[in-house]
Amino acid sequence: MLSVVPTPVTVRVPSKVNLHLAVGDLRPDGYHDLHTVFQALSLYDEVSVVPADTLSVTVRGAGAESVPTDSTNLAWRAAEMMAERAARTPDVAITIDKGIPVAGGMAGGSADAAATLVALDTLWGIGAPREDLADLAVRLGSDVPFCLHGGTAIGTGRGERLVPVLTRGTFHWVLALAKGGLSTPVVFRELDRLRAEGGPQRIGSADAVLSALGSGDAHQLAPLLGNDLQAAALSLDPMLRRTLRAGVEAGALAGIVSGSGPTCAFLVEDQHAAVTVSAELAGAGVCRTVRVASGPVPGARVVGDADPAHS
Ligand SMILES: C[C@](O)(CO)[C@H](O)COP(=O)(O)OP(=O)(O)OC[C@H]1O[C@@H](n2ccc(N)nc2=O)[C@H](O)[C@@H]1O
Ligand SMILES: Nc1ncnc2c1ncn2[C@@H]1O[C@H](COP(=O)(O)OP(=O)(O)OP(=O)(O)O)[C@@H](O)[C@H]1O
C-alpha cells in the first residue's frame, strides 16, 4: 500500500532594522517604552512545518549551533500557542533555515516565531484573522508582531503597537554581521546604566525620518538614522566603532547599529553602491561576514502563496 508523504508548509520571514529607535525609561514591568520605525529587510529565515509524531525543532545555517532546539526556542513556543488556540496537539516537525544572524539585533528568533504562526495557520487550515495572529505574536516577544507585519511601520508600546508608514521606492542596505552576538536584555540594562551616569543624549522625534521615507531619498534619510541602544551596544562591544567607521569609509551614506546589535546596517545610495560598499567592507576585516539587502519587504508569508489574504 502507498503511504502518503505529508507536504511541508514553508514560510519566508524577513529580518528588521530600526531606522529610528527611541528608548524611554525602564517601566515597572521590566520593559522600556519605545518609539521606533521598523523596516523589514530582504535577509530571510525560512521555516517549514510538517506533521510528525511529536513536536521538534531543527535549526540549520550560520549560527545554528547556538540556537536552542527545545521548548526555549521561540518557534517551539509559537507552535504550542497555536495548538492551544486550535485545541489540538502541536505534533509537527519544525525546520528553521537561518539566514538572519543569531543574536544580531535583526529579530532572528522573533522572525521564526512569526513564521511558525503563519505556517501552522496554513498547515492546520485554521485561517485565523491577522489580528488574532498579532495577539499571539505579542505574547512571544516585542518584535514578533512586526515580523508578521513587514514593510515599514512605527512601533510604540514595547514595540508591538504598529502603524504602517508610507514609503516610496526601495532602500538599499549593506549589513556587517559580527562574530558574536549581544543579548537584548543586557543591552537595555547597559543603556539604563549609562543613563544613570548622565549619558548618552537621547535621539529626538521620528518626524523627519517619516518625511524622508515618503520622499524615497536615501540621501535625505541617511543623516536621520538614530538608535538610543547604539551607545549601549558600543559600550559592550567597542570594536563596533571600527565597523561603523569602515562602512562609511567604504562609501555608505550612514551606518547604524541594528536594534540591540551587534549587526551594523549601512544605508547606501543604490544597488550598485551596495555591491561596491559590501566588497570593500568585506576586505576591511571588521566583521564576520557582509550581506546586501533591501527594504521594505513583506512580512512572514507562505512560500508560493499568491493569496492576497496573506499580504
Ligand atoms: C531591541 C528591539 O529589537 C528593537 O526592535 C526590541 O525592543 C527587542 O525585542 P525582542 O527581542 O522581541 O525582546 P523581548 O523578547 O520582548 O524582550 C527581551 C528583553 O529585552 C528588554 N526589552 C525589550 C523590549 C522593550 N521594549 N524593552 C525592554 O526592556 C527586556 O529586558 C526584555 O525582557
Ligand atoms: N528561533 C530562534 N532563532 C534564534 N535564536 C533563538 C531562537 N529561539 C530562541 N532563541 C534564543 O534567543 C537569543 C536571541 O536570538 P535572536 O536571533 O532572536 O536575537 P536578536 O536578533 O538580537 O533579537 P531582537 O533583534 O529581536 O532583539 C539567542 O541567543 C537564542 O538563544
Topology:
Elements: E1 9-26, E2 32-51, E3 56-61, H1 74-85, E4 92-98, H2 108-123, H3 130-140, H4 144-149, E5 152-156, E6 161-164, E7 171-177, H5 184-196, H6 207-215, H7 218-221, E8 226-227, H8 230-236, H9 240-249, E9 254-257, E10 264-268, H10 271-283, E11 289-295, E12 301-302
Parallel strand pairs: 1-8, 3-4
Antiparallel strand pairs: 1-2, 1-12, 2-4, 2-5, 5-6, 7-10, 7-11, 9-10
Helix pairs in contact: 1-2, 2-3, 5-8
The structure holds 4-diphosphocytidyl-2-C-methyl-D-erythritol and adenosine-5'-triphosphate (ATP).
Residues 66-68, 73-75, 96, 102-110, 112, 143, 181, 184, 259-260 line the site of adenosine-5'-triphosphate.
Description:
The chain is globular and about 60 Å long. Helix 5 packs across helix 8 (230-236). By secondary structure, the chain is an alpha+beta fold. It starts with 8 loop residues before the first strand and ends in a 9-residue tail after the last strand. The protein has helices at 74-85, 108-123, 130-140, 144-149, 184-196, 207-215, 218-221, 230-236, 240-249, 271-283, and strands at 9-26, 32-51, 56-61, 92-98, 152-156, 161-164, 171-177, 226-227, 254-257, 264-268, 289-295, 301-302. The protein contains ten helices and twelve strands. Bound molecules: 4-diphosphocytidyl-2-C-methyl-D-erythritol and adenosine-5'-triphosphate. 4-diphosphocytidyl-2-C-methyl-D-erythritol binds at residues 18, 21, 30-32, 34, 36, 107, 110, 141-143, 158-159, 184-185, 188, 259-260.
